[in-house]
Amino acid sequence: MRKMIDCRDYPSEMNCSLVIAGEEEELIRAAMEHAVSVHGHTAGPELREQIKSAMKDEVPQHA
């Protein structure tokens, strides 16, 4: 099952509205890159664990 992270769940001064979804490892990688480049976090094991704990199961959208 794909996972997702929604920046709106973690309000910031930037009012970021990005939602990222994918398989767990690719989601962690993309979310870490986003957290570092956009939100100014420091990459490392602690950030990886925070992202992993924030992931939710993606709810499939049916037309």
Written overview of the protein:
By secondary structure, the protein is of the alpha+beta class. 38% of the residues lie in helices and 16% in strands. The protein has 2 helices and 3 strands, in the order ββααβ. The longest helix has 14 residues. The two termini are 19 Å apart. The mean pLDDT is 92. This is DUF1059 domain-containing protein.
Notable characteristics:
3 strands; alpha+beta; three-stranded antiparallel beta sheet; single chain; 63 residues; 16% strand; 2 helices
Task: Summarize the SSE layout with pairings.
Elements: E1 3-6, E2 19-22, H1 24-37, H2 45-54, E3 56-57
Antiparallel strand pairs: 1-2, 1-3
Gross morphology is: globular
Helix content: 25-40%
Which runs of at least 5 residues are low in confidence (pLDDT < 50)? none
Count of DSSP H/I helices? 2
Number of strands: 3
Total separate domains: 1
Overall mean pLDDT stands at 92
Strand order in the largest sheet: 2-1-3
Give the C-alpha Rg: 12 Å
Query: What is the makeup of the main sheet?
Result: 3 strands, antiparallel
Beta-strand content bin: 15-25%
Protein name: DUF1059 domain-containing protein
InterPro entries: DUF1059
Pfam families: DUF1059
Organism: Streptomyces piniterrae
